[in-house]
Write a structure and sequence with these properties.
The complex is a heterodimer of chains A (74) and B (250).
Chain A (H helix, E strand, L loop, with lengths): L1 H12 L20 H15 L5 H6 L3 H8 L4
Helix pairs in contact in A: 1-2, 1-4
Chain B lengths: L10 E4 L5 H12 L3 E6 L2 H10 L7 E5 L5 H15 L4 E4 L14 H28 L3 E6 L2 H5 L5 H21 L4 E8 L5 H4 L3 H9 L9 H12 L10 E4 L6
Parallel strand pairs in B: 1-2, 1-4, 2-3, 4-5, 5-6, 6-7
Classes of the chains: A mainly alpha (74), B alpha/beta (250).
């Protein structure tokens, strides 16, 4: 599950495969702005065939948090 | 050559679909090939409409709910996701008219008018866009009113809500254009409905005098413009407000 989530960050945000995952944060990691955020949400929803709750979309502020949230939908 | 007005294979949400303009829009989209998810507060009317919409290329599903309630928008989007895994068209039609002279409008009436007409449009747009992004685009049509453009005495809250829809739509059109999602507004004038049928003869005459074409419009005339705006016929049209008012001088 984690690798599927990370793959979306690689594809949408453009993080490198060897990126320190604990440092990937919204509005800090280059490429992860508000526009990319909604694209990332769409990619995660497509990958996991789900619809995230609004609270989770707003709460998805780091890669670590993304893993925590996507566990609910995986 | 493919028919550019065909909606075959597309999925549409239409709010306020149990009667009047909304019902006609849902029916029109269905018979042009779309699957429709209709919403409203009248369970019997929803079931009756879905019962009528049989034999076309698409399906009809209904979601019972008050569009003023926050969760209704999520329920509608989730119905599209659950049934079809996609959404191509959103028609934010649900609305309510409220009248009151300035100084005599209750706070509750202002809140309700904004919630039904404007807040619901914002919430459902947010939810719908997430599904539209996943299949590469879509079309949103928001129903405003000639009162949202020009106002009239006794309609301050209603006009504010309908003007808000125009502002929200033009902003959304700019934000969503890169995602292939078009957002347009239809602003009807006086259309034959339960409301206009209860007008007194004097009010009706007064209204007719302000309409260049000297007649009240039909719901189908609004639905036809919505059909154009959600179809590929308008593939390069976004951020527009189209009046359907017979040349009305508000």
């Amino acid at each position: 599950m984690e690798e599927k989530v990370f793959q979306q960050f690689v594809t949408v945000i453009g993080v490198s495969a060897d990126e320190d995952r604990s440092t990937i944060r919204y509005n800090e990691t280059p490429g992860w702005d508000s526009v990319a955020h909604m694209t990332l949400v769409a990619a995660l929803e497509t990958e996991f065939d789900c619809m995230l709750d609004m609270e989770d979309i707003l709460d998805l502020s780091s890669y670590t948090k993304a893993i925590e949230i996507m566990r609910k939908y995986a | 050559m493919p028919d550019p007005i065909s909606l075959k294979g597309k999925v549409a949400i239409v709010t306020g679909a149990t009667r009047g303009i909304g019902r006609t829009i849902a029916t029109t989209l269905y018979w042009h090939g779309a699957s429709v998810i209709i919403s409203g507060r009248d369970e019997e009317a929803l079931a009756a409409l879905c019962g009528e919409l049989q034999g076309g290329a698409g399906e009809c599903h209904s979601v019972l709910g008050d569009i003023a309630q926050t969760e209704t928008a999520d329920r509608l989007a989730k119905a599209a996701f659950t049934q079809f895994r996609r959404l191509d068209i959103l028609v934010n039609n649900a609305g309510m008219l409220s009248e009151g002279m300035i100084g005599m409008i209750k706070v509750e009436a202002i809140d309700q008018t904004l919630a039904v007409n404007l807040r619901s449009t914002l919430l459902l747009t947010q939810a719908a866009v997430r599904l539209m992004r996943r299949n590469g685009g879509g079309a949103i049509v928001n129903l405003s009113s000639i009162m949202g453009r020009f106002g009239n005495p006794g309609l301050m809250a209603y006009s504010a809500a309908k003007a808000g829809i125009i502002g929200a739509s033009t902003a959304a059109a700019k934000e969503l254009a890169p995602a292939g999602i078009r957002v347009n507004v239809v602003a009807p004038g006086v259309i034959d409905s339960d409301m206009t049928r209860t007008m007194t003869a004097a009010v009706r005459e007064d209204k007719l005098a302000s309409i260049g074409m000297n007649r009240i419009g039909e719901p189908q005339e609004v639905a036809n413009v919505v059909l154009f705006l959600v179809s590929d016929m308008s593939s390069y049209v976004t951020g527009q407000v189209i009046g359907v008012d017979g040349g009305m001088i508000a």
